[in-house]
Amino acid sequence: MPERAGDCTRRGKQQKRGRTKGGKAGLFIPERSLKPLIIPIFIPHEGCPHRCVFCEQRTITAQKEERIGPDHVASVLKQATASARFDVKRKPEVAFYGGTFTGLQKRQMVRLLKAVEPFMDQGLIQSIRVSTRPDALDEDRLAILKTHGVRTVELGVQSMNNEVLAYSKRGHTARDSVEAVQTLKTAGFGVGVQLMPGLPGDSKDV
Fold first, then answer.
1. Distance between CA 76 and CA 164 in Å, rounded?
2. Residue 63, C-beta contacts closer than 8 angstroms, at least 6 positions apart
3. Which residues contact 183 (CB under 8 A, 6 or more apart)?
4. Which of 3, 36, 55, 101 is the one with CA 20 to 30 A from 47?
5. What's the whole-number average pLDDT of the chain?
6. pLDDT at res. 167
7. What is the model's pLDDT at position 84?
8. Is the CB of residue 177 less than 8 Å from the CB of residue 165?
9. How open is the CA angle 37-105-40, to the nearest 5 degrees?
């Protein structure tokens, strides 16, 4: 059946609001359906004051347990932004995982965050998120995060039961987690909470 003028108009409007994927005709992907693009940078065990019973970062990340510097950050981002799958429309975000970011020395925090700045200045990276412990926050470190483009902080809460936390050798309490969430929200950060069911001492009744 011939296409009507009205059909062409409606289809044209749709195409302005979205994009085709992989250049394949007929496969329309609305912009709002694009998943956020997270570029992970792992800092295995760095800044961690404890070794939790469930954590083995060398195995998880396949990286040696050594200090990560600005050169490594820049290398990861250059490779990521040069990839054919990189898409600025997905609002790329750098995520520092695998350690306690705010447990690092302050000058090391600044060095790693500043390594991302050139990519943010070019519009390639939209924001930064970091992972940390509920008991590793203070005003100075929050100010560093805010100044250098961090929008979201993920907290390794793991459990809200103090016995489970003790068995897991977490070194913090459920109250620490509540206070950390409140502190971060007051400071204007987005907050993510990581929970881990099945830890020692955990059960359906806990």
1. 36
2. 42, 44, 57, 98
3. 137, 142
4. 36
5. 82
6. 82
7. 94
8. no
9. 15
Cα(4)–Cα(173) distance, integer angstroms: 66
What values do phi and psi take at 18, rounded to 5? -140, -155
- In the chain the first and final C-alpha atoms are separated, in Å, by 63
- Distance, CA of 202 to CA of 122 (rounded, Å): 47
Query: What is the residue-wise DSSP string for 61-88?
Result: H---S----HHHHHHHHHHHHHSTT--G
- Token pair for 69: 């510097």
Q: What is the pLDDT of residue 25?
A: 47
Would you place residue 200 in the very low, low, confident or very high pLDDT band (cuts 50, 70, 90)?
Answer: confident
Q: How far is CA 88 from CA 29, 43, 112, in A?
A: 15, 25, 22
For 167, half-sphere exposure in the C-beta direction (CA atoms, 13 angstrom radius) is 12
Residue 102: φ, ψ to 5°: -80, 0
3-state class of 100 per DSSP? Answer: coil
pTM, 2 dp: 0.76
Work out whether the CA dihedral 66, 71, 75, 81 comes out positive or negative: positive
Which single residue is written with the structure tokens 């998120």?
129
pLDDT of residue 162: 86
